[in-house]
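A further point concerns the way the authors explain their paired sequence and structure data. Showing the layout once, in full, would remove most of the difficulty. For illustration, here is how one protein appears when written out as sequence plus structure tokens:
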Amino acid sequence: MNDDTVTTVAPGAPEPTPEALPPAPAAPAGPSPASRRLLRAGAATAAAALVGVAIGVGIIKTQYDDPAPATAAAPSTAPTPTATATPYGAKSNGSHFGSLRDLLLPVPAGYEPGPDDGGYGNDTELNGEQLSAELDADLQQLPKEKRDKMRSYWEGMHVKATGVRTYRAAGDDLVVSLKLRQFNQQEVQRINEYTAVFTGDTGLFRIGPAIPGHPEAHCYLMPAPPSAPIDYLECSAAEGDLLVIMNAEGVAPLPKDKIVALFTFQLDRLARPGASV
């Protein structure tokens, strides 16, 4: 198969049936109001702490490595696809095309759209120009030399877009965010490998569950005392030109099998030679 081979998913193609995913976790006896506030707001804080292990890891390394360059009861509907006027899918070389919102996992039965993920909203796609402007605003606080080095690294990544969608379990005890970051394939792979090493070798994180069928995916949990009421899990994987990141936050202990199922289903949707649904 050559690099021009393309598998597409036409608009209106059938989405996965609700039975393809395990049911969302049932509601607990009832998290406290404080726990619910944490559920809605805590993910952004934890994700910010891990910015160096996602798309920004190469930028942070540029700073420190000088002089180196840079199933619910009676569901009424199946998961709802995002309306689109163009097909989406993947070439055989792993380059994805079409809207990232179409490539993101639709909200499955037993879940509903979740809260905003920081400033991204809960169902958003930002193109490269928008992300570049956001970066420029963030870099203004740094010295010019560092700012120029980071800008050079960013341009070398050929960032195309970022897509974000969030999900809240029907019981309001679990919030999940999925991000697709599209940029240079070699850099996607390098950052994903670096993330695995960083989270596995530093001793700062707890080892998370494996993702069946996706050996390059890895999951880890944030540091937390055994008595913590809220727990936080992050997973990362490289799929062609997409860095796939999942953040999950919920009442402890987390339902890891449900979280793994969501991430597996997202990765299967992106797997070469096409974005199968």
Remarks:
- Residues 196 and 228 are 25 Å apart (CA to CA).
- The first strand starts at residue 6 and ends at 9.
